[in-house]
Amino acid sequence: MKTLNIKLFSILLLSILLIACNFKPNRVVTSEIVTTQSLLNEMVDRDGLAKLSEHSFKTLQASSYSRKSISKNQEGWFDNADASQFIKVDTIEGRKEHVLMDVDGPGAIVRFWSTWHAQQFSMGTLRFYFDNANTPQIEGRIDEIISSNKYIGAPLSQTTSPFLENGGWFSGHNLYFPLPYSKHCKVTYQKADESVNDVLYYQINYRKYTSETLVETYTKGDLESNKYKKAISDVSKKLNEYESVVNGTQVDHLNGIVKAGKSVSTTLKGEKAIKKIAIKLNTENLEQALRSTVVSMEFDGKKTVWAPVGDLFGTGYKISAYKGWLSKVKEDGDMLLYFPMPFQQSAKISIHNYGKEDIELVKMDVHHSDWEWDDTSLYFHANWRNYPNVKTSEKKDVNFITISGKGKYVGDVLTLFNDSYQWWGEGDEKIFVDGEQFPSHFGTGTEDYYGYAWCSVVDFEAPFIAQPIGDGNRSPGLTVNSRWRSLDVIPFDKSLKFDMEIWHWASTKMDYAPTTFWYGTLDAKAEFMEDVVGVQLPVKLSGKFEAEGFKVKQVQGGEVITQAFLSYDWSARSHLLWRGIQKGDQLETILYSEKERKGELTAVFTNAPDYVIVDVLLNDEIIFKNLDLYSEKVSLKEYSIDNGKLNKGNNSIKLIVKGTNKNNLNADKLGVDYLIVQ
């Protein structure tokens, strides 16, 4: 009887503990403490994306969004005054500190993005106060903490998409190094010069753990003491290694001709997980095929993936090489995806050709391995939405995705064609989790959400963010942005709704197509699934080639940057600037044309007092010899030939410095605006 009472007491005690801990039977609960080290480990655990998290948390965002945005039913919902918006101003030891974030723990900062106006910013001090400390655990110049942190380094601390404008550098600033805290976190900014009206934008993604979660607070001096030096090195190395983690998998192959209107598929059986998918297409009109060819996937009999192949792999409808933690595209057209995709019994991967032409599926390699399915396992989803010819005259929210059920949101790709010389992306993300009336994620601009800034046209790649092509940012053209989430995944229990504002500088039209990536339980579903008509629409490409969009292949001498000026007449407010050059230096760039073009070829160069004389070669043939770009004033000049030709595919444009004009023997620059054949 005594033994029975002890057992009953134990069962009762366990029940009380489970209720107190908000226990959920489909989530693994451990006693592990959340630490900086554990978060770094989690950051590079791809398999963890496909499981419910060990520790329950909400992902939230503190940002400088306009405080006039209160409700979608009130004026101000689309207000764009989203710089230098702070919670309050604290006076600490005589210092005026603007508060960016002030939240209770336990929690962890998992992403910090910021930017500032190069000509209107005093480069002040950023401070982190953890657990109600009177003195900051982290303190320093804002750029030296976020994007040029010498104790962290790239890719966890880096700038993105930099360009020079009016003598100042503009870029996005990103910090992915996690900063956990047990009780409280306050982040402040102090101007270096109170007479300067600093223009500061920021987004801070952070986790809010349940109250019983044990969290080890970041300690002052941890970075300076090199406590995490090895961990940072290991994580950084892993984030830049893309093949090693899929070793040991089995591979199923599929290839051949896929007739117009037909499909091919492969099926896997057993309790497994897809760890990598590699696809390559070949056809006469590859750009259209990247949109009209759709990948669909079914796991355990349920269709969860339906997206055009180019959008699914983060390249839109033009092959643009980049590499990230969860996807990669190679110059030769290989496209790779590294999301883990577990299933209990079967998986079916299909290629549907909704186009008018046959395509060659050069390869589809599906790498898979065993997976122990349990109550924490989740199904992979990818959904594509298309908004063709969306009018920008009226600001509006468009839906990326609406999900019902339980899961986690892990990223998105945005492919768009801008039909204007004006910037398209002032719109803010608004993410509503579990029926929120006001979004827990309210952003400061579309490019800010994707980790860059100031409508930059400069291509970039990083483990979790990329712009493989930005031709449409300041001129008619294609732009592709992607953001993959790791520590900043957004868990949801009941629902998730992701809206993005359409907020364009011009009244025009735009093609706008987001692809969203998420994981869910068996009953989780997206509101919108397929759009066959949308993938059959003709894709758009520009016939005008902005030089700042050329791919730099080889530089022998000097430095190549993108330079912008609002006051100059460059067609996209920018040009390619090659500076610090001298006689004999060479620059080779690559221009891609989706088709052969013949006719009058016109190249527009910048002329200026410090510009050189140059030979210009197109596909190794001189088209302009001894082109003298000297001018007493900065101006633009057209140079033309009658029988110009661009090949279908890549074209080489080579610049060779021949010397300088006698009026300035010290000239050391060259600028190219654009090239067109018509």
UniProtKB/TrEMBL annotation:
This is DUF2961 domain-containing protein. Pfam families: DUF2961. InterPro entries: DUF2961.
